[in-house]
Amino acid sequence: HVQLVESGGDLVQPGGSLRLSCAASGFTFSNYYMSWIRQAPGKALEWVSSIDTGGTNTYYADAVKDRFTISRGNARNTVYLQMNSLKSEDTAVYYCATEMGWVGYWGQGTQVTVS
């Protein structure tokens, strides 16, 4: 079955950096786009970034463009999110996610707190 396990969340000061990881299993990782989404306290889910199957094309929300970098290692079945110049408004639970047809999958999330 599909499993996505995020890690790397932490408490960091404004201006700091974090690297999130998401280990995937239960499906052919290299065949699927991967995304990061986040949910801040009391707010709706927000799409952050996506990457295509080969890692060539990446996409970002305006709020994180030029600060965050998504990447993937298909040999390791892992997707990453490098977050630089963190702001208090980046505080959220971060989830990695993928879609297979009409079905979406995401992990349990990792907490990022910028304070």
Main β-sheet description: 7 strands, mixed
Question: In total, how many beta strands?
Answer: 11
Class computed from helices, strands and strand pairing: mainly beta
The end-to-end distance, rounded to whole angstroms, is 37 Å
Describe this structure in words.
- This protein has 115 residues and is an all-beta fold.
- It is 0% helix and 53% strand.
- It is built from no helices and eleven strands.
- The strands form two sheets. Strands 2, 4, 5, 6, 9, 10 and 11 form a seven-stranded mixed β-sheet that branches. A four-stranded antiparallel β-sheet has the order 1-3-8-7, with no helix packed on it.
- The chain is globular, with a radius of gyration of 13 Å.
Quick structural overview:
The protein is mainly β and 115 residues long. 0% of the residues lie in helices and 53% in strands.
Give me the secondary-structure topology.
Layout: E1 3-7, E2 11-12, E3 18-25, E4 34-39, E5 45-51, E6 58-60, E7 68-73, E8 78-83, E9 92-100, E10 103-106, E11 110-114
Parallel strand pairs: 2-11
Antiparallel strand pairs: 1-3, 3-8, 4-5, 4-9, 5-6, 7-8, 9-10, 9-11
Structure keywords:
115 residues, mainly beta, 4-stranded antiparallel beta sheet
